[in-house]
Amino acid sequence: MATDAKRMEEGLAHNPSENVDSDRKGEGGEVGIEEGKKEGNGAVLEQDAEKKGEEQQQIFIKQKSKRIATLDAFRGLTIVLMILVDDAGESYARIDHSPWNGCTLADFVMPFFLFIVGVAITLALKKIPKLSSAIRKIVWRSIKLLFWGIILQGGYSHAPDDLAYGVDMKVIRWCGILQRIALVYLVVALIEAFTIKSRPATLEPGYTSIFTAYKWQWLGGFIAFLVYMITTYSLYVPDWSFVYYNNDEATRYTVKCGMRGHLGPACNAVGYVDRQVWGINHLYKYPVWQRLKACTRNAPSSGPFREDAPSWCRAPFEPEGLLSSISAILSGTIGIHYGHVLIHFKGHSERLKHWISMALALLVAAIILHFTDAIPMNKQLYSFSYVCATAGAAGILFSLFYLVIDVWGLRTPFLFLEWIGMNAMLVFVMAAQGVFAAFVNGWYYGTPEKSLVHWIHKHVFVDVWNSERLGTLLYVIFAEITFWGVVAGIMHRLGIYWKL
User: Which residues form the Heparan-alpha-glucosaminide N-acetyltransferase catalytic domain (predicted)?
Assistant: First the structure.
């Protein structure tokens, strides 16, 4: 825990000092100082000049402490969406992850995280006093994200319902949400840090000048794109097999492939790379493709396998795997670009025009690629059309938040999102990963099913509304999202934030 409300944070962790040197008149803090230095022209007494300098310095400090509230609100919204789709998605399959091609509400969560990570990096690394120190912090933060990811999603934590803990290292899951964020953060932050000295003080006229000014960041994203596309469409995927356990009965299945460039569940290069790198025993055991019509009659909801279900329906698949995480670097790169616009463009209208125009271009590209079947939107593969669609949606939503919260000043309706965004790591661990619920479940009466969490869910929500689905949805909204919004607000008032 840290109580310093002025520390730097990226990704899930809050950064109370995220800010840009801007005011409503379109002038920056540094500009204000330079103008202050030019005033007087010898006509003002030395004492008055010193006083004016102190005033200008105070103005500069005040402007520096002013952050963009949209970043906290957007980060908070992403956490809220994660809790909603994770805990209510089973009851409302339409908001859960798409079983394969397509894009649902749940499919926006991961790219939204990566987008806001990119925006936050530009502000946190706006000025680097010492490059070696910045690199150490970037690497160390990435290691901490990896550590927490493996603890929370590797199988060690069984929260919230199973009170046991521990994982067999033969089947530990190496990939996950925080692990992907760690990889993307490490790559884009290091590029940003190493190129900080080449950052232009001012941009040349023209729409494309900000792209050329940060060519190294875009080059990094383009290399990630090339690696992903070349591997996806050229790598030969041979036949493969796996062992499926059902009631302690082991059955070996074989999946026939022997092809290249396949984008279906069975024979894609994304799954093949993960099977080769991590080993099939270390992949996610319950992939969303199990909800496909080919696998279950309950599609798009979960259900028992069909009698004639293909063998791959029972196979593991890693939704946050290596090759798809390389593609996810593009989401962070686009977020970096939005942060650069925030730094260089001082006027609200300039920022919004650039953000919205780029977001619309990304959405158009995604629609064309998807509906022509050139590259379908697919979260599990993290396809290029999926990157464009989700980054475009993030850009539009970020622009709307910025307009309403930071331009029009309507912060009150979004305060609970800001509070959650300020303590995003805490809410992610305690709520989204169920650690707090698991702690409460540890105090039960007679049997583990008789705990406070289960009692509230059943008697306060399900029984009152006489509906398992509606009761679960209301439980998630009020007993999880609203509860943690209040907790995050109290911690903000106390100046307490969880720092990674």
Answer: 67-194
